[in-house]
From TrEMBL:
Positions of the Photolyase/cryptochrome alpha/beta domain: 5-143
Species this chain originates from: Artemisia annua (Sweet wormwood)
Binding positions for FAD per the UniProt entry: 257-261, 298-305, 396-398
InterPro entries: Crypto/Photolyase_FAD-like_sf, Crypto/Photolyase_N_sf, Cryptochr/Photolyase_FAD-bd, Cryptochrome/DNA_photolyase_1, DNA_photolyase_N, Rossmann-like_a/b/a_fold
One Gene Ontology cellular component annotation held by this UniProt entry: nucleus
Record Gene3D superfamilies: 1.25.40.80, DNA Cyclobutane Dipyrimidine Photolyase, subunit A, domain 3, HUPs
Name of this protein: DNA photolyase family protein
Entry's Gene Ontology molecular function annotations: deoxyribodipyrimidine photo-lyase activity; DNA binding; FAD binding
Site annotation Electron transfer via tryptophanyl radical: residues: W329, W383, W406
Amino acid sequence: MTTISNSLMWFRKGLRIHDNPALEYAAKNSSNVYPVFVIDPHYMKPDPGAFSPGSRLAGVNRIRFLLESLVDLDSSLKKLGSRLLVFHGEPGDELIRCLKEWNIKRLCFEYDTDPYYQALGARVKNYASENGIEIFSPVSHTLFNPAHIIEKNGGKPPMNCQLILKLVGEPQWLSSPLSTTLDTIPPIGDVGNCDIIEVPTLKQLGYEDIQEDEPPIFRGGETEALRRLRESTSDKEWVAKFEKPKGDPSAFLKPATTMLSPYLKFGCLSSRYFYQCCKEIEKEFKNHTDPPVSLRAQLLWREFFYAVGFGTPNFDHMRGNAICRQIPWNDDDELLAAWRDSRTGFPWIDAIMVQLRKWGWIHHLARHSVACFLTRGDLFVHWEKGRDVFERLLVDSDWAINNGNWLWLSCSSFFYQIQIYLDTKYIVLSVISHDVASKECKRKIGAAYELNKKTNGMIQIYLDTKYIVLSVISHDVASKECKRKIGAAYELNKKTNGMVSDEDMQNLRRKLVEDQ
Ligand code: FAD
């Protein structure tokens, strides 16, 4: 094989040495490798007007985590005879300048599906291909290539996480152990007149007045990521029996989940390596849990949101997003601020939001609680506003996962069916509508009211301030009548895919009244 003189390894996420195919390729047959990271003011510039310390897009917890991860990466590269070359500026401009200045013949960087990085990558790639520079941009942030999942699903993103493995099978790389170390990296060549800096401190970035009343909960970097992975997986039985959503969201001393999300977000930990470790442990336990609840399956949820996010135009918006219900959310900034600043008066909600601000991390069910409370559950505030607060405060803030979960929790996508609550004592069959003020809803309430009168109270209507639940309650669960009701509701649900029209409802009501 011919030797390529100069290669450039562009780090964005993937801040690690282990299982890093872009870095491995850069190191292969090159005389010099330039490992580069660009501090992007878009994410890092302090915003003094923000509601808590940080930039417009990232809270200070996440910025600190990133800087620590870069220091750790730099130190690992030094052990391999290299170092991290850090720049500060618009990444596209900086990269193109480096490619020119160092006469780079090969550009390597991990493929990234986030829209911001797609656009950045496209610009640098264009320059590289126009100038005859070889480009290597492998998929290694996720287990699968999201485009491949979409292709296997007939060109559309799958709307059900369970489909992922059915569509693509277990990943091919699972058959051989992933590389966990690199022996050496070719040295950095002449750097010319470039403005290379050391990894800056928070203070150097302009965050001068950060007061810490307790140490940060995460330390950034691959070293810490691998230590935490070892710790989480040392109790093999815990891994094998992991079952989400079971688990105590308020357990702090021994958290109910791994808390590895910030490391996966920045790629300090390879999701593929994590998945492989879980698979190995599962082999030792016959009765291990399985997807969608097992620990390994949590990474499949990640894949799911990456695939849907990648294949859905305007995924991060309600408008123009084909999979998102158009709901007339309110625009009440006072309610939003009360939620964000822990002033709702609901202790559980306020405590979670304190934890989010202080730690930058909260348990999955805590995320459920506050997201539901802000949107469909109580305040009826637009999910995009809650998403923005999470995006800024979470250390693990991840474009695809955050947007996907907000769509889910606000009942805007994935999950908005007629719900059938089956209790030992009664059945509640309910249709939830978000649009309380609409004519349609008023008609629904009116019709239900009439029905209620006619059936002498056997049909009940719950009217909440924020959403309407129109329910049919029957006390006699075992009766044939009830079974018919459930059957009818199931059928309607399937037929309309959860989107029930007024006419459907009228027909169903008629059927249910006839049954009584
Ligand atoms: P574990 O249970 O130990 O799972 C291991 C890994 O699997 C996680 O680190 C994560 O990478 C992945 N994972 C777990 N649950 C999910 C899920 N539901 N969807 C996708 N991937 C998952 N997670 C983020 O990483 N970034 C976000 O920005 C984010 N925003 C969220 C917003 C809302 C409204 C909700 C309800 C959830 C959000 N999640 C997000 C998903 C989930 O809550 C976190 O990934 C998880 O709580 C992280 O803790 P852990 O590492 O201990 O998870």
